[in-house]
Write a structure and sequence with these properties.
The complex is a heterodimer. Chain A contains no helices and eleven strands. Chain A is mainly β. Chain A is globular and about 40 Å long. By secondary structure, chain B is mainly β. Chain B is about 0% helix and about 55% strand. Chain B has no helices and twelve strands. In chain B, a hairpin with a 5-residue loop joins β7 and β8. Chain B is globular. Classes of the chains: A mainly beta, B mainly beta.
Chain lengths: ~110, ~110
């Protein structure tokens, strides 16, 4: 069966420090991969999605970036974190469009 | 543009009472619709989905939803809520490679 791993679960980082969040999927090939952010008490904001290795679509221009170095690995990065980057980050995958998404357990990022 | 509206930010119901969470969508073609639940600090879990066929779909944890094309709605229902149903609920519609999400409804259960 398919599983999705996202880590770390929590992270506290100082302003201006770099960020790397990793997400991996097991049990499927060529998934569509997604990074979302959820601010406190708010809905899901799509940050990036990828339909294949090296293919990244950005939905919200900001100081975050994403990479997909392997088929089932999706990384969210920043060179310099801002206070406004605090939030709950969720990774998700789908087999294809018109299918449901499966979510990781999320990473709580606090920038101090 | 496609959109999803969940008009209720919070809903409070008594344990054992029935529940209906509203979802309205705007989509030009036949929609693929989803309901997800999120417990605090957790990822989202799929409750149910509608792709085609029977407009009343059954999901996990005793939830069901009814697709009404004439009203552009996909409301979530449960006949009797349990305290463990307290969570946030999200409706979504498929749009090519993305899912368009509602803002969520937080369900509060009164003992």
């Amino acid at each position: 069966s398919q599983t999705i791993h996202q880590w770390p679960a929590t992270l506290v980082q100082p302003v201006g420090s770099p960020l790397s969040l990793e997400c991996t999927v097991e049990g499927t090939s060529n998934p569509n991969l997604y990074w979302y952010r959820q601010a406190a008490g708010r809905g899901l904001q799509l940050l990036f999605y990828s339909v294949g290795i090296g293919q990244i679509s950005s939905e919200v221009p900001q100081n975050l970036s994403a990479s997909r170095p392997q088929d089932r690995q999706f990384i969210l990065s920043s060179k310099k974190l801002l206070l406004s980057d605090s939030g709950f980050y969720l990774c998700a995958w789908r087999v294809d469009m018109n299918t449901e998404a499966f979510f990781g357990q999320g990473t709580r990022l606090t920038v101090v | 543009a496609q959109s999803v509206t969940q008009p209720d930010i919070h809903i409070t119901v008594s344990e054992g009472a029935s529940l209906e969470l509203r979802c309205n969508y705007s989509y030009g073609a036949t929609p693929y619709l989803f309901w997800y639940v999120q417990s605090p600090g957790q990822g989202l879990q799929l409750l149910l989905k509608y792709f085609s066929g029977d407009t009343l779909v059954q999901g996990i944890k005793g939830f069901e939803a009814e697709f009404k094309r004439s009203q552009s709605s996909f409301n979530l229902r449960k006949p009797s809520v349990h305290w463990s149903d307290a969570a946030e609920y999200f409706c979504a519609v498929d749009s090519n490679y993305q899912l368009i999400w509602g803002a969520g409804t937080k369900l509060i259960i009164k003992p």
